[in-house]
Design a protein that fits this description.
It contains three helices and no strands. The protein is an all-alpha fold.
């Protein structure tokens, strides 16, 4: 998988992120970088809450 290093440098995950911050970060990450998928546990929680992946 290819990493978008500049995106990662410009968009660090916040320290102690809330659920909503994690969701937003991973959705943006998915759009801008192909280095890894959304973690399974978070993806399951997103689906349960009706958030589209």
């Amino acid at each position: 998988m290819k990493i978008n290093k500049q995106w990662h440098l410009d968009n660090p995950m916040p320290k102690n992120p809330t659920f909503n911050q994690r969701v937003e970060w991973h959705l943006q990450h998915q759009k801008n970088c192909a280095c890894r998928p959304i973690p399974a546990k978070l993806a399951s929680a997103m689906i349960e809450q009706g958030i589209k992946l």
